[in-house]
User: Fold GntR family transcriptional regulator from Lacticaseibacillus rhamnosus.
Amino acid sequence: MQISNYQDEAYNAIKEMILSMQLTPGEKVDKTELSAQLKIGATPIREAIIRLRREGLFNVIPQSGTYVSKINLDEMYQGRFARVNLERTIVADAVDVMTPDQIAKLEQQIALQGVYEHSRDYDHFFDLDHDFHEIFYMADHKQFVWAWVQQMNLQFNRYRYLRLEVSGLKWHNIITEHQAIVDAVKAKDAELASHLVADHLLAIDDDVKAVLSAYPNYFEGKVAPSHQPD
Assistant:
């Protein structure tokens, strides 16, 4: 049981390092250094990397080493496509069942995002963005769907975090879009809320050119024709 706990701890820690760009796309990973950094033995580290490799977050090159996978643009867009079409339904369904406490929680998340926007705190801002969307799935009793969406959207979530690091991109747009969604929920306008959350998730397309320009070596594949930046 303890070995399993260490494996889960290593898996979660390394996965978070990849999603938050502490381990960057294309970076060669030293398992001994990871073991020392995380204070976890070599075997759980090795098993965690095998597990994350199956999820597409590591590549192993024979005679060379283990590397963090680059962000695959095709996987990113396909994952985002599925999420948009799922989430617009989730949000529409949640409008009629959200409690006052859940709506208050959404507004609290927005207020805190404003604080972290001001301090340029990527980690907390991203976590709050994640939590904002999760509330809708919980309100609609779709927690297993949320877990599945997160697993399917690993590449999309890596891009979303990286997007926050690009100088000049406006974090406040995310906050404004969140507030518009909440306003639609409070007005019991399911159709508008559904439309707004879809637009919100699609808005990352506006920043593709800037992100790819800032981090050209972090990506593989090509931007789909329908997503080509102007």
